[in-house]
Design a protein that fits this description.
By secondary structure, the protein is an alpha/beta fold. It has 13 helices and 15 strands. The strands form four sheets. It has a five-stranded mixed β-sheet, with helices on both faces. Strands 10-11-9-14-15 form a five-stranded mixed β-sheet, sandwiched between helices. Strands 1-2-3 form a three-stranded parallel β-sheet, with helices on both faces.
């Protein structure tokens, strides 16, 4: 026969004589159901006891709390029949976390005395520490900002109901210019509107040219966790800082006509804790950049260039496409260093690197090969097309004026050797060797010219 005990001091009764199951209100005077659940889970003698949280209504925040407090189930008072079935289940089998569909908003207990108020403050503090802990944990897997944002959106959508949630952060491109990276989580039906509103909120204009595949340059996660409501409520926006450095900005567009206190509180929590994971992402990116780029020019270094070509070669063996290489050497560079100083020489090399990046296609690879030598891999380009590209590069280098540290400008030219691979069994060392011989032929034949291996 089932015995039911009703206790005014649930904590004392449960710890003194552990029952088969505990059914408790989510919010009640004295100790809340969340606190009772944590207490039951923390004590070895009661850790196995199933706890069912009972409430008059429901929100995402309450479901979030029920899950993190360790409740076996979360049931609204309108679902009494389900509660009876659930009690039969949990008393006949080990407790397994379950989730019951939500309803509306639970009312916090009236603030009748100090103990109840302290209980409310403790719950708020536990909520903040839990959210903060989950956001800080993102730093442990902060290799790509896309992954960090996906996990951040999962946290936000667990607690808040919104039309869209977004992150904007500054990134440096290959040409040393800064551009804004935009990440958005929204409902599939609101994808275009959410991107448009997020761009307006962060003042990020759309790209001048749309990508060939038609996709946006923004990283968008579209799923049912976001709300499909179409209110035109202005979004909340806060900076994300790490120390005194601003790492980015986050924004949340409520799904109601006005942002609630909980919306503002959540966004403030996320903004306060996200700086650490974002700084970790920046450090990982910086380490990768140092390992793969030339410190002076920002181009790929030789090792990274070879690694990228190995991937291209693997791809070409499956679906062959021609590959051409331009190896170029700056003419009379020793005279620049000896006559104008090494800072002037560095400025010329940096200027030539910018010219090469501006001339290259997105599919091409540009690297500093060493000293005053640069290399360009022209993918899907046979010798005929490579000749035209090489001449354009030579002309662009010769026509550019390079600004030196003292304010004066200096001209430069380059000798270019071209080698092309038009069979699938191309070998990098052999091609570079051919391009190198062609480049020295250009030197001996008067410089500032292109020679073909």
């Amino acid at each position: 026969m089932t015995e039911v005990a009703v206790a005014s001091n649930a904590a004392e009764m449960v710890l003194a004589d552990p029952p088969d199951v505990v059914v408790t209100d989510l919010w009640m005077p004295g100790i809340s159901g969340l606190q009772l659940c944590r207490l039951v889970r923390a004590e070895p003698a009661t850790a196995h006891v199933p706890v069912v949280l009972l409430t008059a209504s429901d929100t995402r925040r309450a479901r979030f709390w029920a899950r993190h407090a360790g409740a076996t189930a979360y049931v609204t008072k309108s679902e009494i029949d389900r509660l009876i079935d659930l009690l039969d289940d949990v008393t006949s089998s080990p407790p397994t976390p379950t989730h019951v569909p939500p309803a509306a908003h639970p009312q916090i207990v009236a603030r009748g005395n100090v103990q109840e108020r302290l209980s409310q403050l403790l719950d708020a503090s536990l909520f903040e520490s839990t959210i903060a802990g989950e956001v800080r944990a993102l730093a442990q897997k902060a290799e790509e900002l896309e992954h960090v944002f996906a996990d951040l959106a999962a946290i936000a959508s667990d607690v808040a109901d919104y039309r869209w949630f977004a992150l904007a952060t500054e990134a440096e491109s290959a040409t040393h210019a800064h551009h804004t990276r935009l990440f958005i989580h929204t409902h599939p039906d609101l994808r275009e509107m959410a991107e448009r509103e997020a761009r307006d909120a962060f003042e990020v204009p759309p790209p001048l040219e749309r990508r060939k595949d038609g996709e946006s340059d923004a990283h968008v996660i579209a799923d049912q966790r976001a709300s499909a409501a179409e209110w035109s409520t202005p979004p909340l926006l806060l900076p994300v800082q790490f120390g005194t450095s601003v790492m980015g900005r986050i924004a949340l567009a409520p799904n109601r006509r006005g942002a609630s206190h909980d919306d503002r509180h959540l966004l403030a929590l996320l903004a306060a804790e996200l700086g650490g994971p974002m700084r970790m992402v920046a450090l990982v990116a910086e380490a990768r950049k140092l390992a793969s780029t030339d410190a002076l020019t920002g181009l790929l270094n030789r090792r990274a260039f070879v690694e990228c070509l190995d991937k291209a070669r693997a791809a070409s063996e499956k679906d062959f496409f021609p590959m051409s290489f331009l190896l170029l050497d700056v003419d009379h560079f020793k005279k620049v260093n000896d006559g104008l100083g090494h800072e002037a020489g560095d400025a010329v090399l940096q200027g030539i690197a910018r010219v090469l990046v501006s001339m290259a296609r997105k599919s091409d690879l540009v690297a500093r090969w060493g000293g005053e030598e640069f290399v360009i891999a022209l993918t899907r380009t046979a010798e005929t097309g490579a000749r035209i590209a090489a001449e354009r590069v030579r002309r662009a280098i010769a026509e550019t004026k390079y600004l030196l540290p003292g304010g004066q400008s200096h001209g430069a030219t380059a000798s270019i050797g071209l080698a092309s691979a038009e069979s699938e069994r191309w070998n990098l060392e052999e091609l570079i060797s051919r391009a190198d011989k062609a480049m020295y032929s250009a030197k001996h034949r008067g410089r500032n010219r292109v020679e073909i291996a």
